[in-house]
Design a protein that fits this description.
disordered N terminus; alpha/beta; 37% helix
Length: 281
C-alpha cells in the first residue's frame, strides 16, 4: 500500500522543489565533478598556505575566520565542556582543530586535500599535538551516526562543498542537540565581488539571486554561496534550528588573511558570516 505523505513531508518536498528552482539547480544533479576539482586546487595551493598555517598554529589563543577574530571576542565555544567530541569539516591545515585540542576538546579533522593534511601532520609533530586527520570528502565522512557534539567548518565544507550534501552529513554526524558552527563569505560581499575574483568594491556587480555555484577564472575550484533565505530554509529542512547569525565587523587596524576584501569595506558592510545552529533531535 502506498504511503500517504504527511503535511510536513509535503511542505518539505515543496520547499526542496522551490530551492532547486531558486538555486538554479537541476532536480537530479548529474555530477559531483567539483569534488575532484577542489581536491586538485587545494593540493596545488597547499604550499603557498604553509607559512600562514604555521603562524596560525603558533597562536596561543584560537583565532577565527578572515579577520583572525579571537575566541575571547566571539565566544563560540563558551558552552562546550571539556572532552567535547568535535569534528572539523574541511580542516585545511587543521589550525582550528589544533586550537580545539589545546582547549581540551577532542577534535577530528577532515579534509579532501592530502597535501594540506601533510602540512597538518608536520605541524602536529612540531607542536606536539595529536588528533585524527582524516582524508575524506566532508559530504561523506567515515564515522557512525551521532558521533560528535559539535561540527565546525571555517571556510571548509561551508564554501567548498555542496550545501545540499554537507549539511545533511553534518546533521547525521551530530548527536541530538549537537551544534553546527560554520563560517562563510558575507552575501553582500559576494554580490560586490567581481566575476574575475578581484577585491570587492562599493557597487553590486553580481545578482544577489544568482547561481549558488561560483567559479572564478583561472582558479579551478568551485565555491558554493547562498543567500540568507536559502541558508535558513536549508538548515530548517535538514533538521537544524538556527540559534545565531554573527556578521563580523573587524576592529580598526585589523589585517585580513586574504586580499578579497579591504578593512575599509568590511567596516562598512558584512564580509564574514558565522552561522550557529542546533540539531533538533
Amino acid at each position: 500500500m502506498a504511503r500517504v505523505k504527511t503535511r510536513k513531508q509535503e511542505a518539505l518536498a515543496e520547499t526542496e522543489t522551490r530551492e532547486q528552482v531558486e538555486l538554479h539547480e537541476p532536480a537530479h544533479p548529474a555530477t559531483n565533478e567539483y569534488i575532484e576539482r577542489n581536491r586538485a586546487a587545494w593540493d596545488r595551493w597547499a604550499p603557498q598556505h604553509a607559512p600562514r598555517a604555521r603562524k596560525a598554529w603558533e597562536e596561543t589563543e584560537l583565532r577565527w575566520g578572515l579577520w583572525d577574530t579571537p575566541e575571547s571576542e566571539l565566544q563560540l565555544l563558551r558552552d562546550l565542556p571539556a572532552k567535547t567530541d568535535a569534528i572539523e569539516l574541511g580542516c585545511g591545515t587543521a589550525a582550528i582543530s589544533a586550537g580545539l585540542d589545546r582547549r581540551d576538546i577532542r577534535p577530528v579533522a577532515v579534509d579532501i586535500s592530502r597535501e594540506q593534511l601533510k602540512i597538518a601532520e608536520q605541524l602536529q609533530y612540531e607542536f606536539r599535538l595529536s588528533f585524527p586527520l582524516i582524508d575524506a570528502n566532508a559530504e561523506e565522512v567515515p564515522f557512525d551516526d551521532a558521533s560528535f557534539d559539535v561540527a565546525i567548518s571555517e571556510y571548509g565544507a561551508s564554501v567548498w562543498c555542496n550545501p545540499r550534501r554537507w549539511l545533511p552529513e553534518a546533521h547525521r554526524l551530530l548527536r541530538p542537540k549537537g551544534h553546527l558552527i560554520f563560517f562563510t563569505n558575507g552575501a553582500i560581499l559576494m554580490a560586490c565581488t567581481p566575476t574575475d575574483g578581484g577585491a570587492a568594491g562599493d557597487r553590486l556587480v553580481r545578482d544577489y539571486f544568482s547561481k549558488y555555484r561560483v567559479e572564478f577564472p583561472g582558479e579551478g575550484g568551485v565555491e558554493f554561496h547562498l543567500t540568507h533565505g536559502h541558508w535558513v530554509r536549508l538548515l530548517r529542512s535538514t533538521g537544524f534550528v538556527l540559534e545565531n547569525l554573527i556578521e563580523v565587523r573587524p576592529l580598526p587596524k585589523t589585517k585580513p588573511r586574504f586580499a578579497l576584501v579591504s578593512l575599509e569595506w568590511a567596516r562598512r558592510w558584512p564580509s564574514e558570516e558565522i552561522w550557529v545552529a542546533r540539531k533538533v533531535v
